Amino acid sequence: MPHQHTREAHKVTLIGAALDTLLGVAKIIVGWFSQSHALIADGIHSLSDLLTDALVIIATHYGRQAPDKEHPYGHARFETLGTLILSSILIAVAGAIAYDSLLRLLNAENLQIPTWPALVVAAISIVSKEWIFRYTLHIANKMKSDLLKANAWHSRSDALSSIVVFIGIGGSMLGIQWLDQIAAFIVGLMIAHIGWKLMSDSLKDLLDTALPEEETRSIIELASQIKEVKGVHSLRSRKIGALVFLDIHLQVNPTISVSEGHQIGMKVITLLHQHDLSYDITFHIDAEDDSRRSYHDHPALPLRQELLLNLQQAWQPLGFVPDPSQLVLHYLNHKVDIDLYLNSTLPEDINQTDLVQPLTQYTWLGELRLWKRYHTDP
Questions:
Q1: Is the pLDDT of residue 223 over 80?
Q2: Domain count, the chain
Q3: Range of the domain at 360
Q4: Confidence at residue 262, expressed as pLDDT on a 0 to 100 scale
Q5: pTM tops 0.90
Q6: Bridge partners, 342 (sequence order)
Q7: Which residues have a Cβ under 8 Å from the Cβ of 367 and sit 6 or more positions away?
């Protein structure tokens, strides 16, 4: 699927590049002979699209490659970087067009009236750029590619600027000579606006900005639909190109097995992927809600080996030494609850109280529960 998407992205981009070349050259030539500075500016805008088209092809080629040893999260940052460069080019082109338009307005006595061929080329540009915008946006939504979407809106900015140019040329031909220069200046502002919007979005991705609050809330609501999930907290999100990376904490029944907890997490991943395949999800299974605690708040509770040594030392005088397989440990509320599964009954002179008494010296002890384990023949 990624290779198919890359081919589709390259196809629509190459079609757009061919169209940009034809329109750019036609606008500059016709604008020159028709005395339309606005059409020349629009032609420069169209030819600047060739740089962005090349950037899109390069970025989608490398950005859609699979993760490798040096890039375990993939190469999607290439698309974000490509969008950032594309937006910088747009802003630079916009500044040059706007500056030149202002200079010409200051020398209004030398302005010349455009002729009708400029009006025809502007109309052709409006229709063709609107078509390539819709085509590119369709592929961008299909691929969930911000870079391709940015290139689509770049084409839409060309269509909009051509509308402004069409009005400017028409106004100049009707006697408002300065309207052509005003149109060129407006084109520059429109290009700058698009460039700034793209730059802002790409910078947000580079700075690992979280998803919008409504989307985050939707993810939590979806995960909470699984009955075995008792709570969802500490959801963190960030975008890398077209991918959305999620870190999510799932609170489950504290007495279930590790494998059951993992299976609940996999069920949540499956459910979220049914709604959006762009998610790359890492889940953390919690036995309790620790969202308001920092790692510094957790006491240094003993792990199994240390705890088993403590139990052996405490119970050895009673003549009872537990086997590691008999213990199930639950780390809850800053304590350790112990489920002790007995393969046989305790000696008659030992009861639960006798087992608890030697453990009172350990502040980590929560509750000790005794269980009888039964074996059945296969």
A1: yes
A2: 3
A3: 304-372
A4: 94
A5: no
A6: 372
A7: 335, 337, 338
